[in-house]
Amino acid sequence: MMASAQHTVLEPAPETAAARPPARRRWLVPLLAVLLFAQMAVGMVTSAVQQTPTIDEPVYVVAAADYLHEHRIHYNAEHPPLGKLVIAVGVALADPHVDAAFTGDQTEAGRHLLYESGNDPWRLMFWARLPVIVLTLLFGLVVFAFARDLAGPVPALAALALYALSPDVIAHGSLATLDVPAAGFVLTSVWLLWRARGGRTRLYLPLAGAALGAALATKMSMLPAVPVLLALAAWSVGIRRARRALLAAGVVALAAVAVVWAAYLVVDPRLRWDPHHTDFPVPVLHGLRGLLVQVLPFPEAYRDGMRIQFGLENDPWQGFLFGDVYDGSRWYYLPVALLVKTPLGMLALWAAGAVALVAVRRLRPAAPYLLVPSAVLLASAMTGSRNFGTRYVVFLPMFLAVAAGCVLATGWRRRSAATWALVAFVAVSSLRTFPYYLPYSNEAFGGPAKTHLRLHDSNVDWGQDLGRLADRLRERYAGRTVWLVYKGSGVPEYYGIRASDPRRVPLREVHGVLVVSDSAVAKASGRLAQLIDSAREVGEVGHSITIYRR
Asked: Which of 520, 458, 516 has the alpha carbon at shortest distance from 492?
């Protein structure tokens, strides 16, 4: 069945009322699409303006600035450069002063650039985040186009709504980080492979390879998708025609490799690389991992970055899940975190979309394109040792939004009404969390105010609310003694916060206002746990910082 269907291009807008709007109302789909993009843009720009740097962002920003000024791979070598080149567009527009003589590590360099070099961190971070915001909006066009190709304009609108209202996508699409760009490039590659079906290969296969290369040149965690996408490339042109199938896979692979090399060459045309000048040691790998890294046709800096990543996987990491602090990782962490942080209506539509792709004959050819890459990347992420957040699987709200839109292509009126009701439920849940998208959790788990009781780190508290904390302390606690345990990359003093660390003095001396980041609260032990237990909670900031009084 699949082999015979592979050359059949699904017609957009099948003959169902749910998938095709009446001629008099065809203007409604583009109008609603514009409104969805507008609310997404407002959410992301508001977050970008109001949030202080998260933990990872200063490192990416200083790496981008270093690319522009020193033209070298130095900071953050454990990640490829393309995502930081995107960020560099905004950094170039901000035109910050860069201290070329600074010799600290990447964390210190990020802090130095933002807070110690005469730059305005608010302005610099906004410009650094802006290219990622634009890219996130462009990936929304891919979601819409993919769903329209599969099912028509109305299902495409539903898919776009789920994407544009996803708290995770808005939260991480507003940051100068790599997760959303990498995931979006993979989605784009899969969509182009779908379009390569039916003989339209000359244009779409090279573009699909380029998009795959962009993903690989942004985050190495996208590597597990490579064999899947190469197989889809072969499938798109006809798996029974072995020569054409191998040629298609080869075109995609060659284009992907070329883009990875191009990303490094843009940074440094001479490809200078010194593994001794990295913040993390480059370990020697043995066995299958060592062989895999050695045979990859990428620059040595990329392969050493992979070695660093494998080394980090072996480090002892601590996790937090539903009140339990544990060492190592738990394979079910990400599925559980997704249940907490995904709107309930979205979860239902994801499941319905996956079922529709498998059960509906006309949609079945699209199932391998949407479900297999998602499943492989999810399985890979679940085996990782760092249980830090749903940002590692932010590709799911993209792929499964397209799948969910296909529910409307089944043509059942009751199913159509239920679908739009669930989309409306998602909209209410997402809009209610504005502008605190990062700590979002759905209604079944108490909403954003309760997320810190179940998850930590980038799920809740990534250091983003230091500026909001400064405003709160000025408004309500001016003149009070403040004690602060902050988890983040910001510098409290820059924002006017004068505070001491309560863990460095005897407990009996800690009186006044005690402020603790929720990730620190989650893992509190020893003296900090005693301080919190003997204090009274009096407020919170951004659902990520708790204020106590002692």
From this structure: 516
